[in-house]
Amino acid sequence: MKLDKLINLYKDMKNNNIERYRFDYQNGKGIFDIFFFIDETPFILLFGAKGANFSFEIEVKNGFNIDTNLDKDTYKKLIEFLGIQYSKGNPFSTFKFFNDFNTNIPNVTIKTNIAKPQQIIKYRTNVEESEKIYFWKWLDNTKQGNQVSNENLEKTRKLLGVKAYERCKKKNISSCWTDDKNKEKAFVLP
Q: For residue range 9-35, what is the model confidence (pLDDT) as tens digits?
């Protein structure tokens, strides 16, 4: 299926130098945090179920096409989250779900909706020190005589993006995180 409304959002993101964007989407009883990552290849749509321990990612391939099929476990969790009861005559359709999603994609970005690491980590939880959700600073490991860990690089990629990951890997830099909101710093590439 082609998500044609995603094209305008993508163009607006590029025009505003935004690589990771967040917006809300509601379907029935379910409300989602939607993250659109254009710094990953292929692009990624992360659907995070608000108020539930459930999320899934969809690859957005060339031409803004997606596969509307979900694995059985994700399908069941989605139905449960949406509060849909099985109906033999009108089964739940992921095609209809994604078609409805497509009609609700915003056309333009709002600067306040740029995806922040502490929003993303709610759904990409499998990272080191997952309780530390606020970006704090960069650490130059070469000066310390150390090597950036693969776990830190993976957290950097998942929460700050591919450019930050590549820069940290190339320059032996670690991203440092804190659980103290007061220590949070604005993220700027090292």
A: 999 999 999 999 999 999 988 999 999
Nearest Cα to 149, choosing from 174, 131, 121, 132?
174
pTM of this prediction exceeds 0.85:
yes
For residue 187, give the nearest of 15, 19, 11, 13 by alpha carbon.
19
User: What's the CA gap between 100 and 78, in Å, rounded?
Assistant: 14
Work out whether the CA dihedral 22, 23, 28, 31 comes out positive or negative.
positive
d(C-alpha 157, C-alpha 8), whole Å = 25
154-175, pLDDT tens digit by residue?
Answer: 999 999 999 999 999 999 999 9
Q: Where are the domains of the chain?
A: 5-115, 118-183
